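U., I forgot to send this yesterday:
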Amino acid sequence: MKKNKYLIFCGFILLALAFNFKMNIAGSASFFNNFQYDGESLVVGRLILSERNNIFDHARFLGWVQPTPAGLDPYLYQYEAYQHAYDFESYQAYYSHPAYQSLAYGVICAVTGMNGYPALDFLKWLVSIFTALLFTLFIAWVQRRWGWATAFFVFFTVCFSQWVTAFGRNLFWILGAFYVPFVFALWYLQKYEPNDRRSIRTTFWLMFFTMLFKCLFTGFEYITTALVMSVTPWFFYAIMNRWGWKKFLQSVSVASAGALAAVVAGIACLTVQLSSVSGSISRGFKYILTSFGRRSHGNAGEFDSFFRESLDSNLWDVLRAYWNGHAIDLSHWFDHPLWQSVGKVSFGFCVLLFLLITWVVFQSKIIRKHPVFRRQQVALAMMLWISLLAPLSWFVIFKAHSYVHTHMNHIVWHMPFILLGAAFMGSTLWFFIRNIFAKGGE
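Result:
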């Protein structure tokens, strides 16, 4: 047991280091350079305003200080202005996010007395550690169910993902927050639900508070993905624990209700924040509806030219872009074009590979001889394919956003489809490897 905890702790430290230093085993330096610095600059601009005024000024909204001197990048200027305490004339707020992280960051900076780059480095360490903790908890769950070989396989899958690594320490995204409902649900169902006499009530409040945390700290970014991801554990345990249809439908409905109630509560919080700036609740709610429309399938004629192209985009073109995106890109390891091509693994290829492994699990006569293992693989396969709805929900419902943000939205494949696929693939391969060694030793 102590050895297990030691190994898990070592994995946690390695992930935190990988996220904070953006270790380029997962991607080229050009991929990581200034990745999502535009989004993170909203946090930096907020820290500038909080430092000059107070952490509650302008309803805590993120934003940019202005004006930007001619010829300078408006996003990179936020970092420079924070480091050198430049004066500013106005503040352009970003109103689509409750921005509770700005409150947390502001309090940390006020307590520690830090500012400028030292403060940003410290906050990025905290975010890296938090994100590493959530991924470590998922890997620990995998280890509990399938053993160390599968856990190591998932660990290396995370390390070789340029998307997870790039997002891992970003102060705007706080990647770990997206996984809080999912990971908490996994461990609740694993350790506590079978003995919880009030499981329905516990399920509702667990999903409510964990999803509310996600909404308040990361806003409604990838919200449909987070919602689908949060309920996938119930499909796994329904099969593993042989739930009847009544218990399954009741449990997953309550979990969904708790998560949806949290989204409603998050929208209410954002509406109140907006009303303090706009002057009325109705204006705040109208802004939220407009924001939803320009990111999804709103009428292009109602928006300016900047949004029209994305709103008029073809859904199949959007899906094709994400199908062909790279889950793993190790091309920077090689100089020869052939090996550079081999070093790229697309998300579409991963889907087909997981389909093949699913077929093997259901058809293999060897696996049929191990009913306990087969049940667990069938349960994992069910959770895996339900989880495919998580990225698809964002690509389809928020088509306009996905059309524009192909440089970052691939991360939703990891929420949690690719992670579950890695566990599915690793555990199935290890099963056959063990059988080969067992036969060889006879």
